[in-house]
Design a protein that fits this description.
The protein is of the alpha+beta class and 153 residues long. It is built from six helices and three strands; from the N terminus they run H-E-E-H-H-E-H-H-H. The protein has a three-stranded mixed sheet with strand order 1-2-3.
Length: 153
């Protein structure tokens, strides 16, 4: 992919996580981000409007990526998920686009299945965060009871 070698990613504020080159050589940059709607910077808006944290992060990523897009003519997808499993509008649209391409290629792809699997991984990450915090706080007995059934004598 010599096209990618010509893009000076280092001079830009963002480096995409995924670069897609279609059959016509058109570039699409995908930048994945997980946002916590409970964080201080998002919680006020998130308590009033569903997926507002994801939308705010999408806009932030678009702003940061604009110089790169202007120089390369590429498309951009901020693939944003909220920590508790919600998907930003552009992430949902991207999964639907992948599903359309998959159907065209006769590959059975269901965007809902992909969303469920990604949400499961997010939740598993949340469990890991809680367990790590419990271990660091010295709550080993509580952590063990969360991971194994109680034993009665």
């Amino acid at each position: 992919m010599s096209v990618l070698k010509e893009i000076p990613f280092a001079q830009f504020e963002v480096k995409p996580d995924l670069v897609i080159v279609d059959l016509f050589g058109k570039l699409t940059f995908v930048d994945v981000s997980i946002v916590n709607p409970s964080a201080d910077s998002y919680s006020a808006a998130a308590s009033k409007k569903h997926l507002s944290a994801a939308r705010e992060r999408e806009m932030e990523k678009e702003r940061k990526c604009k110089p790169l897009l202007d120089q390369t003519g590429a498309s951009f997808v901020p693939f944003v998920c909220e920590r508790y499993g919600g998907f930003g509008k552009q992430a949902r649209s991207f999964l639907k686009l992948l599903a359309r391409h998959a159907r065209y290629l006769r590959y059975p792809h269901n965007p809902f299945h992909a969303r469920v699997q990604i949400s499961k991984v997010l939740q598993q990450g949340n469990v890991h965060v809680v367990r790590t915090a419990l271990q660091k706080c010295g709550h080993f007995a509580l952590e063990r009871s969360l991971s194994s059934p109680a034993q009665h004598v």
